[in-house]
Amino acid sequence: MFSLTPKEDKFFELFRSTASVACEASRRLVDFMKDEVFSEEKLKEIKEIEHAGDKIQHQILEQLNKTFITPFDREDIYNIAKGMDDIIDCIEYTSSRFIMLNVDRPTKQACELAELIVQCCDEVTYIMEELKNMKNSKIMAKKIIEVNRLEEEGDKLSRQAIKDLFRSDLPVLDIIKWREIYEALENAMDACEDVANAVEGVVMKNA
What we know:
207 residues; mainly alpha; Methane Monooxygenase Hydroxylase, Chain G, domain 1; 6 helices
């Protein structure tokens, strides 16, 4: 049965919840990378966080299917929900690469990229908190711009890291491994930017 009354608060609450999960996943990634040996146990914890994100994604879609009146376009709600889920998935995927590719220790650049992901997720959290009051928000636009800036910073760092790889004396197999990891880290930041851009589109439509 479709609901005949708006369920705005539910959507905004779920968006805030999934942003909180993304922040937790990003911090666990940084913690995971600080160990001398990559921990299977900590990877398991990140996977459990990713599963929690999946559950919220399902809740959003379920709510979308049964709500007749939505706070903004249904397609935009879906795109934001999918984008948030992508952030968490990218973080989990990146974490698993370290163990799957049998990498011993993270590089300085990888750690810096992971810290940037945390910053991106923090900014996305602010965006989700402001989404309900987007028409009157005094910080929404600044937060969206900051996510774009952080993603650009990460993009430059990732490109330099990959360039350094091909100028190094590392074995070819190690170069391949690290290139994949750097690209995975960059993808997580790209996912944050995608969410920020999706929200920016919503703000423009509802201005």
